[in-house]
Amino acid sequence: MSGGNPIGAFPQTPVAGLKKRGPAMAQQNDPPPRAYTNNTLPVAPQQGAATAGNGAPLIPLTIIDAPTQRFYAFGIYVALLAWKFYDWAQLVEENSESFWLFLKWIAIDCVFLFGLPELRIPWLELSQPFVVVAFFAHAVFDWMLMFNVGLPLQTFILGFVKVFYDRELAISEHNVKLSNILHNSSLIMGRQIINILPEGSAVLNPEQIPFCLGGERKIVQVPMYFNATVPIEVELIRTDLESNQQEVIKLSRNQLREIERKAKSQSPEGTETIVQFDYPAKKPGVYRLGKVLDEYKLEVQRSNPLTFVVPCPRAWVGPAPSSGRCIGDLSDLSLQVEGTPPLKIVYSRTINGRDRSFHFQSLQPDGFSSPLSSIRSSAVVSAHDDDISWARSQRVPVGLNESMHMGGDWQYSVDEVHDAFGNIVKYTSPADDPEGKPKPKHLVQNFFVKERPQVRLHGCDLRNPLKVAKGDSKELPVRFEIAGPTPDDTTHTLSWQFSPIDTLTESGDHGDVVTSGTYSAKNAHDRPKISAPGLYTLRSVTAGSCEGEVQEPSSCLLLNPLEPKLTMRSDEIPDTCAGNSIGLRVDMDLIGTPPFTVRYDVISNGQRRSEKLNVHGLRYQMELIPRLAGHHKYIFTHIGDDIYKGQRLTGSEYVLEQDVKPAAAAFIQHSTSKKSACLGDEATIDVILLGDPPFTLEWEIIHDGKRKQHKVSAIQEDRYQIKTSPLTQGGEYTLALTSVQDKRGCRNFLQDELKISVRRQSPRAAFGQIEHKRRAMAVEGSALKLPIRLTGEGPWRVSYTNLNDSSSKTVEKVVQNDNDFLEVGGRGLFAITDIWDNQCHGVVDPKASVFEVDWHPRPELSVALSHGINRADGQFVVDPVCEGDVSGFELDLKGTPPYHVDYEVHHKPLQGSGSSLSRKQFDVVLGKASIHADTTKAGTYTYKFSSLADNLYNSDRNFQPITVTQKVNRKPAASFVKTGQTFKFCKSDQSDGEGIPITLTGVPPFSLEIEIKHHSAAVPEIYRTPSINSNSFELQIPRQQLRLGTQSIRIRDVKDGSGCHSIADIGSPSVQVQLYEAPTIYPLETRTDYCVGERLTYTLSGTPPFEVWYTFDGTERKAKSSTTNFRRIAESPGIFSITTVSDKASECRAPVDIVKTIHPMPAVKISKGRNVRVDIHEGGEVEILFEFWGTPPFEFTYTRSTNARKGQKSQVLETRHDVSTEHSKVVRASQEGTYEVVAIKDLYCAFSTQQVDEKNKKAQKAIKYQ
Region entry Disordered: which residue ranges (predicted)? Predict the structure, then answer.
């Protein structure tokens, strides 16, 4: 391995020590030539080869070896980085930024990074891309530092830098460490330690904390306190609660060693303190201290209060017979409570999710007496009282027997139980349990309270009995209800009493024969069926385990009516003239429950049909009169009533037959009994004749109470058409057939008639009105709807024509509504010529038969002539204006507003070409419109109005364009010859020197307005020049118009001889004028008294860098400041006075007189500046001496802390504040602790060493000075 090439990514480091190896070693290590051809890494260069070739280090390795060169390069980089962080810390302290430092560090990083590869140090031969990337990374880092850009670790880096460099310039012009000045431990010295010697004692459970055992609590820790003693023997006496036997318990050696170990750990310096030891009690009983011996085997003073360790109280819910209840039932629940009485139990009752808490207290057995009943403290129990039976655990039952008045889910749950000593056992509810575990079953009892059902009869009582056919059954109309939402299960059981109909008493009540019935219904709509006639009375209803309520009506009477029966008698109906039978008259007697339905079949001349007859009473007479001659047979087949349906009729008595030859008859053939006719028209009526011709027909027409008889004879056909005379009067006519006679000569009376309704007037037509007149205006070429008014029955056919148009034809239009429109498309005089409704011809109202239609006039436009507007050569000319001025003219418009105008604006410049054309438009609602003239460019403007439209007409083909011209003069201009240049002036120099050159264009003479804007002024000042008669000008601004510093001079306004003026835009070119004055210095604070360690801060006005001359304690010094801030640390007391200041821009030194007094920090010593320890007995006092240095009065704050012990931090017990007008003060103290001063203040300065811990803020008081 030693003879091969190095293994790894880097070659071996060349060292100068290789020359010490011998030639034999070199030959032994030289590999064969073939091995060189396969090597990927060259052998590290030797000493002899260091000077050969271009790859050798710039500094030979014989002078400085490679590791040392790398160390020097790394050291230089770290030094540069520290220097860079120092500059950055200075910028952060001054809250400023520096472009010069940024350039400096870019140059330094560039030299270092690009120069490092030129040294060709092994392992530091950086590639060119890597160097470029590293340089850019350092440049970004330099930018973030020198321009004070926030860094993620800025606070950490500043703190890290401050650890190594925390120095600032002091008044002595030396760097001092501020922390050494601020944290001067010699200002507060000394402390007074007071130790109170203790007296030994022992006590068991002094706070009388109650304890109990039971459940998961197997052991309780009973506290023992030993004051100023370490026991070597401790006895406890336990009295059993059940047997009253006493047991002596001695603490084991391990327990005594634990007490001793605690005492030593709490008093490392040998001082005695209070030691607490928790004795693990595993058995219930009454505990008290028996005997306690200290290390000298002397009995320690002790108090003997009794400590009761009793079984923990507990409670549970007694078993309930069932979890189901009905509304109104009692809960019948028992709670069992066990513990030391008197007991208290807290339970909750939840009804449908609504929780409410209850409790019972003073639960104890009958005759029980306890010393704790009146005063809740075991201190009343004497240690010599042998009777402790009252402390035994006893069981007390608690009965809960309340009415359950609401349906739903009820839950009783035990929440807490208390015993007489105050022991509390809480049972966590599922809502409070993190895991949501339910309570054990013995602590909870759930009930589901059901609503009680209600039943009553609906639609049946003693006055409205149920009727059912014999042998049929019917549902007993029971209505089942449950209050609240209907449950899923509505099964229930009904019971009733039944008495047959023949056993009822005379009053309708149940007789001697009474039977009971029950029915189990599956749901709320399931009802029992009954069939036996009698009285049914509901007795009870039960749903599940809940018995319900029977409401009225509860009784129902069921009857079986008689079956329907029919008895008939028939007689022939003879013809009074010929004596022949023309039909049958049938008398019917019915038995049953109306209404009745009788069905029968009719067989006439071999044709059979079925008929139905409804009879609403028990008697009925019907006539069977056929219209056709022949044999007719009537077979009555069925009868039914309201109870029995379709009872079949059998027997010959239900069959009737007859041979009929009917008398002559006549009928009007019309689908309805009413007919309409027009006024003055004739009416025709068709009549059908029955019998043997020839016929003689008589009829009459009745109108307005007058009858007119008509008769026609020798009618040979069985049809005849009656034609009336013209009906000239409106109203209702009645045509009644009175008699008919055939060849047998029998004259038969007729009753058929027809109503003829004759209109009282003919249909009429007339034009309606538009805005109370029959004349309308319309847009030329548009359609117009003319209103028309019609009377009659639609639809109507209206004919009209245009009287002003000889070529117009008559137009006929069908109109559906009586208030409709006729649409016309032209203008003229339109007349209605004819009118028809759906049946009758009408008349046209001559007064309203004509309607006139005309066109609206087209819009007009003209230019309003006023001052400044003239008319010449057929066009309008507006007076010339200046470029950018406001100008315009008005237009007059006629027509129907709003108007729309299109026009062109043609611009021709004053010189050269470059004409432009733009098209514009506007809308206006009034008869006048203002046109704002375009004056943005100099030249001649021509406005040509080419199109006009109003609300009615979009365009007018006959519109004549209107032309308006106006000349716009060019604005004058003024500019600085040297725009952007800075001119420097001195405030004290008032002579006329060099001015600011200005060039002007326009027509002389000119006048200028100059704006002077100082960088610190919100409102600029205005300076106006006198008249200028040339196009060049040297501007001289009076010094009283300028302010110190830099101001921007801008030409605001220029006016020439043509009356035009030009206002410059905001941001127009300007020049800078700097007015200098001697620099000044101002203190940032108005106070004159300072303390050692404070910063004296001033601000300088002028151009940095500054030189400041000052005196301190009679010595004059000069300081330089590269910024406008001047700050020094007051390292020692004295008088600090600034006398002179100068800056870079001004050569004068400004005398100043700023005097500050630096006061020394106040100092205090307690107990002559030493740590003094004093031991006193309880009740003794110690004098504590406080000595002060400074300027009275003194305010000081001192604390009393616990005496420090090994391994423990001292705790502040109290903080006190005091005042002294002298240089010393004595304070008496009698409490144990360490007294030391934490803050001191005199008339001018204050100093504090108190460091308040965030965790103990609430226990300590902060020091505040007014």
Answer: 20-40
- Residue 58's Cβ-count burial label (10 Å; 0-12, 13-18, 19+) is exposed
Token pair listed for 797: 């056919």
For residue 152, pLDDT over 60 is answered with no
Model pLDDT for residues 235-268, shown as the tens digit of each residue: 999 999 888 899 999 999 999 899 888 888 877 5
CA distance 850 to 829: 7
Question: Mean of the per-residue pLDDT values for the chain?
Answer: 82
Position 519 scores a pLDDT of 92
Question: Considering Cα of 48, then 52, then 53, then 59, what sign does the dihedral take?
Answer: positive
Helix boundaries (H) for 510-647: none
Question: Residue 264: phi, psi to the nearest 5?
Answer: -70, -40
Do the beta carbons of residue 177 and residue 167 sit within 8 Å?
yes
How many whole angstroms separate alpha carbon 1039 and alpha carbon 991? 10
SS3 245: coil
How would you classify residue 323: left for phi > 0, otherwise alpha for psi between -120 and 50, otherwise beta? alpha
Distances (CA, A) of 22 to 2, 29, 43, 776: 15, 11, 18, 135
Tell me: the pLDDT tens digits for 1048-1107? 889 888 888 877 888 887 778 888 887 777 788 889 888 889 998 888 889 888 778 888
The model's confidence at residue 309, banded by pLDDT at 50, 70 and 90, is very high
Q: C-alpha distances in angstroms, 14 versus 35, 57, 459?
A: 21, 11, 123
Please, where are the H alpha helices in 127-177? 128-146, 154-164
**At residue 87, what is the residue type?**
D
How far is Cα 1170 from Cα 1159, in angstroms, rounded to an integer?
Answer: 26
Using DSSP, state whether 1265 is helix, strand or coil. coil
163: β partners: none
Contacts of residue 760, defined as CB under 8 A and 6 or more positions apart, other chains included, come to: 679, 730, 731
Phi-psi label, residue 738: left if phi above 0, alpha if psi -120 to 50, beta otherwise: alpha
- Distance, in Å, from the CA atom of 1030 to the CA atom of 1110, rounded to the nearest integer, reads 56
CB 1125 within 8 A of CB 1082: no
Residue 503 CA, chain-centre distance (Å), reads 78
Distance in angstroms (rounded) separating the CA atoms of residues 884 and 891: 22
Amino acid identity, position 817: N
Ramachandran angles phi, psi of 1006, nearest 5°:
-110, 155
CA atoms within 13 A on the CB side of 236: 24
Tell me how far CA of residue 1056 lies from CA of 1031, 1051, 1065, in angstroms: 11, 14, 18
Coil, helix or strand for 847? helix
Comparison of pLDDT for 832 and 88, the residue scoring more? 832
Residue for token pair 């299960």:
489
Which residues, listed in sequence order, are joined to residue 921 by a DSSP beta bridge?
Answer: 902
In the predicted model, what is the mean pLDDT of residues 818-831? 89
Distance CA 1008, CA 971 (A): 13
The lowest-confidence range among 133-147, 575-589, 603-617 is 575-589
CB 1101 within 8 A of CB 1141: no
CA angle centred on 704, ends 701 and 707, rounded to 5°: 35
* C-alpha separations of 1093 from 1133, 1160, 1229 in Å: 10, 9, 34
Please give the single-letter amino acid code of residue 57. Answer: P
The count of other CB atoms within 10 Å of the CB of residue 817 is 11
Q: What is the C-alpha end-to-end distance of the chain, expressed in Å?
A: 82
Q: From CA 1193, how far away is CA 541, in angstroms rounded?
A: 100
**pTM of structure:** 0.40
259: closest CA among 197, 324, 202, 179? 202
Cα-based torsion angle of the residue sequence 893, 894, 895, 896 in order, rounded to the nearest 10 degrees: 60
Beta carbons within 8 Å of 70's beta carbon, 6+ residues apart: 121, 122, 123, 124
Length of the chain in terms of residues written: 1266
What single string gives the DSSP state of each residue in 1135-1146? EEEEEEEE-SS-
